[in-house]
Amino acid sequence: MLKTLADILSDNWHWRSQIGRLAVFELVKKSRGAVLSWAWFFIKPAMYIFCFWFALEIGLRQGSTDAGAPPYILWLAAGLIPWFFMQDILGAGVNVLSRYPYLVNKIKFPLSAISTIYVTATMIIQLMLMAALFVIYFACGMPLDIHLLQVPLLLAMMFIFWDIFSIMLSQLSAVSKDVANLMKALSTPFFWLSGIIFDVQSIPVDWIQTLLHFNPITFFASGFRDAFYNQVWFWENPTACLGFAVVFVVTLVAALFVYKRLHEEVPDVL
Amino acid sequence: MSSNDEAKKERSLTKTSVSDEVVIRFDHVTKTYHLYKNDKGRLLGVFNIHKAGYLGEVNASNDLSFEIKKGEAVSFLGRNGAGKSTALKMVTGVTHPTKGTVEVNGRVSALLELTAGFDKQLTGRENIHLRGQIMGLNKDEIAAIEPKVEEFADLGLYFDQPMRTYSSGMRARLGFAFAVAIDPEILVVDEALSVGDRAFQKKCIARIREIMMDENVTVLFVTHSSSTAKEFCSRGIVLDKGTKVFDGGIDEATAYYEQHY
After folding, report:
1. Residues contacting A133, CB < 8 A, separation 6+
2. Checking DSSP bridges between strand B99-104 and strand B22-36, what pairing results, if any?
3. Burial status of residue A165 (CB atoms within 10 A of its CB: 0-12, 13-18, 19 or more)
4. pLDDT digits (tens, 9 = 90+) for A113-155
5. Where are the alpha helices (DSSP H) in B118-218?
6. Which of A17, A24, A105 to mutate to test the interface with B (most CBs of B within 10 A)?
7. What residues contact residue A269 under an 8 Å CB cut-off, 6+ apart?
8. What span, in angstroms and rounded, lies between the C-alpha atoms of A265 and A104?
9. Contact A122, A166 (CB under 8 A)
């Protein structure tokens, strides 16, 4: 198990420059064939945020009740923007090997690094969206705050966790299409059940709250909200941190088990 | 080694010298493919739950052992399904042996399925950069091979068009041009000489010959044509059902192959 972990880490380190360049190629490919090319990375998220803001604040009058609170749009954007990253991983990220068949069985390339390519590419988009989030943040008249320092940490955690997740699920979905289909089917439920458009802390039933803390999507969405909106440290909620730690360890162990079992077999199957 | 050298030199078209350094070593290599009735069986099977749906196993390579020295040109002979391509795939590192070890020292450039392995959305030029980067070449090296590839593939304006607009021949030309441009240490050629029109084929054969003249390059060759094998190679390995049945000089090997199969 530990050897598998060491292998994955050394592969990713050894191929780091190739991973970086292939991630850029991935973005080039994504923006290819459209006149607005790079602008599309922003247009879709902007539409999303606008729709939810319109539906929730204008339509359902859900927004902030106390007068002094920061604008509702900031609360929405801080939760939705990390969701865009996670949505991409849950969609294409779990089936990443079929995206790069030539790296799997035509050229010698470590399979775990293929996930890292895609997660890196998605992270580059996420960083651009984060920059936009900072623009929204300051446009809302918020001050430079020390709690913003946890943003890079959260981004790094998000990168590592979802990379491990993608390594595990992409191996499985290479063997069986069920995995990718399952994840596709679960994407929408995850969105509505993970506290991206509601505050988990405000659920009155305790056990539901605790259960949701074991959901990494909830952890990241509320973590970014803590930084941008509530202005508290995410570790001030020990249940959430504990829940995430448990899920992280379980995912890591499962991923190592799956990778060890499958990575030599996958090129023959795909 | 010297007497060996002399003999080789007489064959003006084949390799000029062979060193003692072993670049490829197969040590009791077995490659087993497990066959299942469907994907569900496979999913259960990889977690060692062999129940319904398991059809059996096939050994594509069976206890295969050989050594290839630096500078040798070796031809693999055998019928379809004899395990030639599987062996070459293990040399390139895309498939792992089930049992035994495969040792390869040197940069491998493979001419396996030339038309595969390019990204159809990217242009020919971008694909060359991408491939070069995957192989770990630095910027200068890529800049150096780019004009070589462009000239060799001779695609004209299409070199800067997305590859989905290419014909299969054009794709193969680009693949071949890249594989021979990077100055490989080990060149794997799998039935790749039949690409393109006759003029291009001639160019390919001339280029492969040029590469093979370099005493530091090891060449592995798969072909069904005895004359091509004799033209390029000095040693032949005959495979049958994944097992090595003959290993020796190319003339004896082709004779053995023609006699038995």
Report:
1. A77, A78, A81, A228
2. antiparallel
3. buried
4. 999 999 999 999 999 999 999 998 888 888 888 888 899 999 9
5. 124-134, 139-153, 168-181, 198-213
6. A105
7. A174, A175, B42
8. 11
9. no
Tell me whether B101 touches chain A (CB under 8 Å): no
- Could B117 and A107 be called an inter-chain contact, meaning their C-beta atoms sit closer than 8 Å? yes
Tell whether A28 is within 8 A of chain B (Cβ): yes
Q: What is the pLDDT of residue B5?
A: 47
ipTM above 0.95, yes or no: no
Q: Which of B39, B94, B135 sits opposite A106 (nearest CB)?
A: B94
Nearest residue of A to residue B97, measured between CA atoms: A264
Query: Residue ranges per domain, chain A?
Result: 2-269
Q: Distance between CA atoms of B184 and B68, rounded to whole angstroms?
A: 16
Q: Residue B218: helix, strand or coil by DSSP?
A: strand
CB contact under 8 A, A105 and B112: no
pLDDT per residue of chain A (270 residues) written in tens, 0 to 9: 888 888 889 888 888 888 888 888 888 888 877 777 778 888 888 888 888 888 887 777 765 555 567 788 888 888 899 999 999 899 888 888 888 887 887 777 888 899 999 999 999 999 999 999 999 888 888 888 888 889 999 999 999 999 999 999 998 888 888 888 888 888 888 888 888 888 777 778 888 888 888 889 999 998 998 888 888 888 888 888 898 999 999 999 999 998 888 888 888 777
Least confident of B40-54, B71-85, B209-223, B227-241: B40-54
Question: In this structure, how many other beta carbons lie within 10 angstroms of the beta carbon of residue B107?
Answer: 14
Q: Look at chain A and count its residues.
A: 270
B34 by DSSP, 3-state: which? strand
Phi, psi of B212 (to 5 degrees): -70, -25
- What distance in Å separates the CA atoms of residue B186 and residue B106, rounded to the nearest whole number? 6
Question: What's the whole-model pTM score?
Answer: 0.83
Angstrom distance (rounded) from CA A129 to CA A82: 9
CA distance A215 to chain B (A): 26
- From residue A113, alpha-carbon distances to A22, A127, A176 in Å are 10, 20, 20
3-class secondary-structure state, position B58: strand
Please tell me the distance in Å from B242's CA to the nearest CA on chain A. 17
Residue B1 is predicted with a pLDDT of 40
Quote the tokens at residue B215: 């005493």
8 Å CB contact between A255 and A161: no
**B39 with A21: Cβ contact below 8 A:** no
Asked if A108 and B108 come within 8 Å (Cβ–Cβ), the reply is: yes
